[in-house]
Amino acid sequence: MKTLSLCMIVKNEEDVLDNCLSSVSDIVDEIVIVDTGSTDKTKKVAKKYTNKIYDFKWINDFAAARNYSFSKATCDYILWLDADDVLLEEDRNKFKKLKENMDKKYEAYSMFYNYAFDDDGNVILRFRRNRIVKRKRKFKWHGFVHEYIDVQGKVCNTDISVTHRRVHNVGQRNINIYKQKISEGYKLNPREKYYYAKELFDNKLYDEGIEVFNEYLDENNGWIEDNIVACGKIADYYFRMKKYEEGRKYCFRTFQYDLPRGEHCCRLGLSYINQKDYKRAAFWYELATRLERPTSDWGFINENAYTWLPHLQLCVCYYKLGDNDKSYEHNKIAAIYNSDNESIKYNEKFFKELGYE
């Protein structure tokens, strides 16, 4: 059986680290913890699981810290996680089976990342990341913020998911790193410019964020999936500001990069609902119900836009348009996907009072 090192970088993670390590410690053969300056009980928690704890002076470079953690691994393969990640029981079982059958022909193994959830706990954003790499290949991390590992060779795409359970907000940390680099004369590459714009948005610096996003989009050198997300971020902001025409321009712009996506059809539908134009809203939600979920798992997909959400909104639209039968049918379809949703359950009760069964 192949051996596996878990390599992590941490700082002030006492609230979450135990949950992470307890979910994976019995699967891996070695745990390497690199601490970048904790002032809480992070190291004390880590010592429950490993004595391989190293200090790394923080130099505003996540890739440097991750590469250092990888340098301390000794097993055949390396797994990486963040402190607020966990493996749920179903995924733990899948992981154990994977470890028993790891094949040397693969240079890396990817897993899903369950990153965001709705109020009912359903995954609404998940994507793939390379999670396990062959140690002897010495793959390197790149990027001082929002780092990525450059994998070359054959990758096995597994059905295992890592679940993200964020507790702490990064606040100004990342944006300050970007601003420092820029002040030093560093020129951001397209990927860095995209993530810098996202950080500006996260810190509510919307005007500056839109400017950077537009620079990124106009240069036309970015990843298609990032382009689509950037347009969505700008569109959402304009819709919140009730600048509906401006927002729709960015939804339509996504059609330049790929076939229409459910997320943007739902955005367009909601923009028309907000203007009480239910006929046009219904058009976009109907289109969303006919779209296939993108086949690539490497992009950023809102699962709800391809299941219950457009049907729930069509329930609203057709009721407003006076077609109770269609409204009822769409709520029934929405319930197939998400029977616990409070709005769907309210609608079921409402239609029952109208005589629908």
From TrEMBL:
Organism superkingdom: Bacteria
Glycosyltransferase 2-like domain boundaries: 5-141
InterPro entries the UniProt entry points to: Glyco_trans_2-like, Nucleotide-diphossugar_trans, TPR-like_helical_dom_sf, TPR_rpt
Gene3D superfamilies (UniProt xref): Spore Coat Polysaccharide Biosynthesis Protein SpsA, Chain A, Tetratricopeptide repeat domain
Protein name: Beta 1,4 glucosyltransferase
